Amino acid sequence: MGNRLTQIATRTGDDGTTGLGDNTRVSKNSGRPHAMGDVDELNSHIGLLLCETLPDEVRELLFDVQHQLFNLGGELSIPGFELLKDDGLLQLDNALAHYNAQLPRLQEFILPAGTRAAAQAHVCRTVARRAERAVVALQDSESVRAAPRQYLNRLSDLLFVLARVLNRVDGGDDIYWKSERLARAASTHE
């Protein structure tokens, strides 16, 4: 792993480059910094979600996710290095199964709305999808293990499910999209 930062304002990035964990420098506009930045932004949004009142088990899960995202970002920052472990993906799969079992089937698309915690979970979901796309774009030009992409894909699914869970904490529900197709179908059956 590269050296730990001892000072933040190094001015080495003033030329439009950034240092990777293997001490190479790349353009801040290249694929690796884009993917790392999106993962960092996702982790920050999850930190914001953790400021909300959450069930303890959701809080613990999200705290673990933050650590896994830090590992994922570290892996992206060091080409060829592996930090994200299989147990992180397994944790997401288990959480998806656990929380999905508690939810009713979706009747229609839902809006990213409801409680503030649920809405923030939806923001996290969309940032996770962007981070996943950035990793896929990086894989088009560089060698990257499948684990980061898989983790972000599964995490975005989990964040969608958690948004639904969080809307129900105090007896609420999903906010369904008012589909014109469904409205027409309902009116023809009346």
From TrEMBL:
Instruction: Show the InterPro entries listed in the entry.
Output: CblAdoTrfase-like, CblAdoTrfase-like_sf, PduO-typ
Pfam families (UniProt xref): Cob_adeno_trans
Q: Where are the transmembrane segments?
A: none
Q: Which Gene3D superfamilies match?
A: Cobalamin adenosyltransferase-like
Q: According to the UniProt entry, what is the EC number of this protein? A: 2.5.1.-
* Superkingdom assignment: Bacteria
Q: Report the residue ranges that make up the Cobalamin adenosyltransferase-like domain in this protein.
A: 8-165
Q: Which UniProt keywords apply?
A: ATP-binding, Cobalamin biosynthesis, Nucleotide-binding, Transferase
GO biological process, alphabetically ordered: cobalamin biosynthetic process
Gene Ontology molecular-function annotations: ATP binding; corrinoid adenosyltransferase activity
Task: Give the reaction(s) catalysed.
Answer: 2 cob(II)alamin + AH2 + 2 ATP = 2 adenosylcob(III)alamin + 2 triphosphate + A + 2 H(+)
Annotated stretches, region: Disordered? 1-36
Q: Does the keyword ATP-binding apply?
A: yes
Q: Which family does it belong to?
A: Belongs to the Cob(I)alamin adenosyltransferase family.
Self-association and partners: Homotrimer.
| Name listed for the protein in its UniProt record | Cobalamin adenosyltransferase
